[in-house]
Amino acid sequence: MAKASVSSLICDLAKSFYDLGWVSGTGGGICIRDGDHVVIAPSGVQKERMLPEQMFTIALDGAILDRPADTTLHPSECSSLFLKAINLRDAGAVIHSHSIHAVAATLLFETEFAISHLEMIKGIEGMGYHDTLVVPIIDNTARECDLADALEDAILRYPDTYAVLVRRHGVYVWGADWVRAKTHAECYDYLFRAAVEMRRMGIATCMGGG
Amino acid sequence: MAKASVSSLICDLAKSFYDLGWVSGTGGGICIRDGDHVVIAPSGVQKERMLPEQMFTIALDGAILDRPADTTLHPSECSSLFLKAINLRDAGAVIHSHSIHAVAATLLFETEFAISHLEMIKGIEGMGYHDTLVVPIIDNTARECDLADALEDAILRYPDTYAVLVRRHGVYVWGADWVRAKTHAECYDYLFRAAVEMRRMGIATCMGGG
Amino acid sequence: MAKASVSSLICDLAKSFYDLGWVSGTGGGICIRDGDHVVIAPSGVQKERMLPEQMFTIALDGAILDRPADTTLHPSECSSLFLKAINLRDAGAVIHSHSIHAVAATLLFETEFAISHLEMIKGIEGMGYHDTLVVPIIDNTARECDLADALEDAILRYPDTYAVLVRRHGVYVWGADWVRAKTHAECYDYLFRAAVEMRRMGIATCMGGG
Amino acid sequence: MAKASVSSLICDLAKSFYDLGWVSGTGGGICIRDGDHVVIAPSGVQKERMLPEQMFTIALDGAILDRPADTTLHPSECSSLFLKAINLRDAGAVIHSHSIHAVAATLLFETEFAISHLEMIKGIEGMGYHDTLVVPIIDNTARECDLADALEDAILRYPDTYAVLVRRHGVYVWGADWVRAKTHAECYDYLFRAAVEMRRMGIATCMGGG
Question: What is the ipTM of this complex?
Fold first, then answer.
């Protein structure tokens, strides 16, 4: 895909994530890999009002290959985190959401979010209805870039996960391409919300415990 | 209606169902009967971004009559379930929703969802305000196609129902045509949500019990 | 205003009410008075997909003055209820909503909904911040037209109200023109929702009781 | 910026605030400073349907510099409150929201809203993840203009705040320009909602108390 199409897609997706409450207050973001480089949004801008010409292109090692004409812009602070999922798990796209459902899940679970026996679990690649979906939870840090080591550690310890929750912060979700990353993000968000509701109703989130 | 119009309608409805939270994560779906065949969406695609040219046409026995040029697409896994409502109840359209309200209802009720004395009950054909609306709940299975027998059984045991809930999964809803199927889907969803709220408030969902 | 403009406005407003969850499942509705006649939507149609040419014009006594070419359409079942507010209170527009917040309020209050000391109360004509806003609640009936007597009775007993709640059903709201009716409807809905939340938090909805 | 662009921007933002539930029932509002004058919406109009030609221009002392042709319109009742943030804190834009999350927060906290250790706190200028975000709460008054003294007092007592909550009413939020005011408004609203949810889950909103 040409950079222009990827950039337009990022703007389009970011607008829909805003409508879902995932990227309000300039928070959250998305990047899409395009071959050996990654198109990524700038830091600290209104995610629902971005323009394609504001996007950066970075290499897989984080080097800036192409930048917007507007010199006040900087690549998203999530860059080093996004690159962890891309380089360690061959992700084709990574979504970072501040969804209140994700944050609530990190307040109700300790080191792992776990849920089983909900149809939407099947939306996560490799998972079946009877499987227990586990998402590691890492602690938040004062600066977003300082999360990179903890994120890498969680990715290595949970080789099957497509998401890492960050306590009191949100979630990073990825997939082999943007469609699968977005599908994962929607399924995880649904499951975080369902788990919070289940806890409120006094229903265990996992069969045989939880 | 020409296939093109039905296909466009399906895409349009699926987008609005996405906005309602019924078909996120590529889940859920809709089919519309057009005479002796059925137009149905492909499996595993983003329901809010479908194009009319991606639709399948199948016969009432499930045989594929017309398929999209994109050979990577397969008919929705719900096909055999949709055909149960079409063939056993003469449905003109069937909607499958993963609405969190439907799932929550299946967690609070055992084998039957039941509610009475809410105006929206009148939106279900044949039901009056004083009637108790009952929706059978069947257990989920690992594969969607394995639900077909349980769905058929529920349809036969509840000859007046226009919906079958699937525990921890969602709901199948139908009607004589797409307008009535959609109206039913909206009324059922409202009633599932109302019931969950009523339980939370400690209010019985049925007069004289519940 | 020409009938065409009023009809377009009704379709436009109904679409936005659908997005608010007030008129799903073909329920709810709106009428707008235009001099000595009233433009009103048909019964049992999808409120978010209405077309201007589907509107009826009725006289203040309910007589049909002008009807759509589509002979399968009938005037809204709410007609006699809408006319009560128009004739008894000189309303310029009446909105009927099935909002789940309105229904929940009727489950938590007995014969009167009452709330005080919320800024949004000031959005109801004649009310100040320190006033207690009271909305009468009437019991629902099997058929919508049978509500007319109870609605008239409530309107006469509460000469200052711009709304009547119908238990387990919804609410009728009006104002001197469509802008004031819509403003009232938004304020009442906000207050119903706020009251339900306050009850859930254990906070009295009225200062000095409630 | 020409007045026309600022006016269009206000209409556009007000529409999106309506969709967020911040300015329903003609309540709430926004003003944007443009050099030595301020563009402000009229009082008591539907905020989601405003037109650029309905805007007022006022001086920093409140004098009307330019008014719409429609002589029935008056400047927003919030004018004197907006000017407090503009003159005392050099705000470039002020947003007034009736968000139900803000109102709920004022019901759960006494004189100060306080929250710590949530990522979205970083969206407020000058705040870090480990800081405790404090928002003063002032009591509501019968008339909006009577709030001005209490608002000024709160602004002077809390020199670092970018928001003042008004009990049972809503919140005033500002920033150095409209982007930062809107970012602040989104972050505060998220945090008010999060705090209400945390209280409901029995989780303290501040580490070491709250």
Answer: 0.96
